[in-house]
């Protein structure tokens, strides 16, 4: 009976360590994702020209066809 309690205790301890490791990895992945999203948002903000600078929208028909002669 004592051996069963010791084995159960060790099993529970190992399970707890495994769960803590999984949580740590998940937190690191979430932090990395948040950092990447923040960086992407900063890139979009710097790459998007303001409406007053850009002027009118370009003609949507331009660039629809490509004529190639060989």
From TrEMBL:
- Judging by the UniProt lineage, the source's domain of life is Bacteria
One Pfam match: YjfB_motility
InterPro entries in the record: YjfB_motility (IPR025906)
Q: What is this protein called?
A: YjfB family protein
- Which organism is this protein's natural source? Acetobacterium wieringae
């Amino acid at each position: 009976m004592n051996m069963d309690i010791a084995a159960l205790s060790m099993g529970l301890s190992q399970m707890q360590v495994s769960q803590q490791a999984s949580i740590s990895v998940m937190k690191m992945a979430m932090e990395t994702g948040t950092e990447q999203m923040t960086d992407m948002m900063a890139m979009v903000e710097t790459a998007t020209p303001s409406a007053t600078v850009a002027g009118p929208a370009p003609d949507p028909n331009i660039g629809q066809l490509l004529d190639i002669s060989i």
